[in-house]
Q: What sequence folds into this?
């Protein structure tokens, strides 16, 4: 295994500075470190046009700390990038000079087009969006990007960031109705002439505001929460949230579960900007992603020279990434996946289920990931696999889909499949989907019990309430057949069929060699 | 990192056959695979003196499967060992020959002394026992070993295994009081002349019976369960459990939470044998370990040429083992551990807490393990660290201690320390212990925020409700000082002292290099 390569992206935003270290090697990547400071370098900018001395001093101290950290941890490459607040400040050159002097860091100031581009890369590489709009709301500015066939077609930036809008419209705490109205009108006016907005479609949101709003909505709805990746924030839920936020002073807003305490003052203005975009564009749902500008900068480096630097298939990339990080034996996992899908396909052909391609994709993902928990411990590794899936998340999948993949991993051995804690995320039929997937995955795992890939393929014939499973094999399959037969109960519960297994191929030669 | 070395131990017991693969490298070891079959090769042995054809055929099929598995997974070394049932059977040579013929495996039949020795190695290498008795109860036989200064001083074996006792005394289902009385008398008589039993002391139990009894008692008491390692099964809890078991038919016994369904018929006889040992020896508590014969065989190989092959300090070995498996940066972790312990020691010297050495050891363990969760993901790595501690367990520590180490890891960053789900395991004062440990660990972590080991040591002076923390440093510590100062609240809550931090050493030179 080659040594991982590390890239530190420092994102100097108007509200917070964030240093994120990404590591990558051999087909996987992950965040391996993160330092976050609520610097608020943009404080006072809206009123004066300049970055103010106190925020600048906080910024310089933070950059000094980052420089220390980077020297101590030997990161391969560093990319410090600044956005709206620094970009738009009258005294920007003086601040950049002081930053270089104090920390040694050469900061790259992103243009609005650069900033939108990295946001677009983050969104399209972490969700399944093909056509729609990416909303990137920061402390200083907001970017919207029109996406068609995964390409960025139109881009525009507005100085509608949460810090700025708070300072300009909601300085009074709590704000009065007329302040709210003024902010709402301001946003609507700014967006009125965007001819490529409107008519709804797929909207993806990035940035701390949308993450906090999604977390609050998720908790308010009593849904199990393992992050907000892929969460769909509905317009009506957002409207309700804005109503609650508008009645509270800033400090109380930060106590709403899901809203970070340091964001209590900004969240209302941010939420209303998002509302304005959903209104102007006719969007019913905002899909949240945990990726942002920093991931965009990283993806540009990871996926170069592809142009644009996009994963071919985000959902497959997510699954492969997890499998490569925690991967167990490829030969074993690959064979289990193939046998499980064959069995599932045969049962669809026999009319025992609808053969829904989305269900098949979830099964394929679970088959690839079912053993990753062995990286934690062999004991209870089925539960560890679920823990890893839920902890890392699967960008491109919704929370419901991620939970189903996790439960399929969980039930690839031991126990009776149930939606358990995830019932609140489920749709009608998901209990049966889980029963089917767990059953075929478990049969496939047992056919590979001896881990020697002796079973090459399976055929299935269904008649009179009996499923005749025929194993095609190049080696003795006594073991796998015997082990799989002991999973008849779970199979019968899932498909209402009695399972009988027979085998082609040599009998017991391997054992007598 | 060197390639891990693997050893497969096959334990051919009277009740079940178990293949366990252990891997080890660079200071860590773990179970990496396991196959378990309830073969019951001993069924019918008690009545006839011979292994019976049906159980033998099940055994041979299982061994064939294991042979397949071993060929497919390329294990470095294989040790198949047989215990009581095969050892004592009239037809043992024929069965061993058939096993060799069908599977190619050469089975080593352990003498009762060997069997007791491996059980002793398992117990002394997975608990903190120094003087006491190891009880190893299998399907065929039971071994007791007298331990003094961690050495095995006396050993004896009895044919009192759970399968044998069930067949001989409890064949009627459910049994009648006279059957229970006969079993009880039989055990008491067998143990009557053991002059080194009696007077109580430390009793450690190994084997499936004790694991199941401990799990049932743990669940019955409503305790949070993350395995039974180190669980203390009290005599009164065991008596209650035996009473409940005796009223149920075998099938119902296997439905008691904690009792495996395949063990429902054997558990009552097994529980009564354990009861008999506790009675004869005057033991109040049985400490359970998850290690057994298989681990004993593995430890003999791992720890050779030490004689006896024992870890010098089981608790330290457990912590090191986890740290080496999932270890983060040694330089960083080592410095955080040192600073946390210094701070804790200084606070004890200043009379702010009692300086309990057990508390100090838990803090040291948590300091070494606090970052292991980064092996899963940087995000929420404090929670992942706890998950790994609880999942893997810490042999030598009680469940309460393991939970406290887990909570200390959890609260090394973010959140307000609380016992949470583990309150039921806690003792008086544990909430404060956790508050103290979390506070010093978090201060130490923040002093190492830039991960450059700039802070060499700390001094503390306490007066007038203020803790003056002086940092001794060889490099600029602006960062660490600033970061640690932001943890004043958690420090003040834990110690009732306002924290002030000052620094010796160079000012900001590193940042200007």
A:
């Amino acid at each position: 295994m080659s040594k991982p390569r590390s890239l530190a992206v420092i994102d100097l935003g108007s509200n917070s500075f964030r240093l994120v270290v990404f590591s990558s090697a051999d087909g996987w990547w992950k965040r391996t470190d993160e330092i976050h400071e609520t610097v608020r370098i943009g404080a006072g900018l809206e009123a004066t046009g300049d970055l103010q001395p106190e925020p600048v001093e906080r910024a310089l101290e933070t950059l000094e700390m980052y420089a220390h950290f980077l020297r101590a941890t030997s990161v391969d490459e560093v990319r410090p990038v600044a956005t709206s607040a620094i970009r738009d400040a009258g005294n920007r050159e003086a601040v950049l000079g002081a930053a270089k002097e104090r920390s040694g860091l050469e900061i790259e100031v992103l243009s609005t087009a650069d900033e939108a581009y990295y946001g677009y890369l983050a969104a399209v590489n972490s969700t399944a969006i093909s056509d729609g709009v990416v909303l990137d709301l920061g402390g200083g500015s907001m970017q919207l990007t029109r996406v068609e066939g995964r390409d960025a077609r139109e881009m525009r930036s507005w100085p509608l960031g949460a810090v700025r809008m708070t300072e300009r419209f909601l300085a009074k705490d709590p704000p009065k109705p007329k302040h709210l109205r003024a902010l709402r009108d301001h946003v609507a006016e700014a967006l009125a002439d965007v001819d490529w907005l409107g008519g709804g479609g797929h909207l993806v949101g990035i940035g701390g505001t949308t993450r906090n709003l999604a977390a609050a909505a998720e908790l308010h709805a009593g849904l199990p929460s393992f992050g907000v990746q892929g969460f769909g924030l509905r317009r009506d839920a957002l409207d309700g949230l804005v109503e609650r936020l508008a009645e509270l002073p800033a400090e109380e807003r930060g106590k709403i579960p899901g809203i970070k305490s340091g964001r209590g003052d900004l969240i209302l203005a941010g939420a209303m900007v998002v509302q304005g975009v959903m209104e102007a564009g006719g969007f019913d749902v905002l899909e949240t992603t945990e990726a942002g500008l920093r991931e965009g900068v990283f993806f540009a480096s990871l996926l170069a020279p592809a142009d644009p630097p996009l994963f071919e298939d985000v959902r497959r990339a997510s699954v492969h990434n997890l499998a490569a990080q925690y991967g167990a034996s490829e030969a074993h996992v690959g064979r289990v996946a193939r046998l499980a899908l064959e069995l599932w396909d045969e049962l669809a052909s026999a009319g025992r289920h609808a053969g829904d391609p989305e269900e098949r994709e979830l099964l394929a993902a679970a088959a690839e990931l079912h053993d990753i928990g062995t990286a934690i411990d062999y004991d209870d590794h089925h539960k560890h696999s679920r823990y890893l899936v839920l902890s890392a998340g699967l960008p491109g999948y919704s929370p419901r889909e991620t939970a189903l993949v996790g439960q399929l991993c969980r039930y690839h051995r031991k126990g009776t499949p149930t939606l358990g804690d995830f019932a609140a995320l489920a749709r009608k039929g998901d209990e049966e989907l889980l029963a089917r997937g767990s059953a075929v995955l478990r049969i496939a795992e047992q056919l590979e019990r001896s881990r020697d890939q002796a079973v090459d393929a399976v055929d299935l014939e269904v008649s009179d309430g009996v499923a005749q499973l025929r194993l095609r094999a190049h080696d003795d399959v006594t073991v796998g057949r015997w082990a799989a037969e002991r999973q008849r109960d779970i199979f019968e519960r899932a498909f209402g069929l009695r399972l009988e297994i027979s085998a082609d191929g040599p009998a017991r030669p391997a054992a007598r060699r």
Notes: The longest strand of chain A covers residues 28-37. Residues 53-73 of chain A form the longest helix (21 residues). The radius of gyration of chain A is 26 Å.
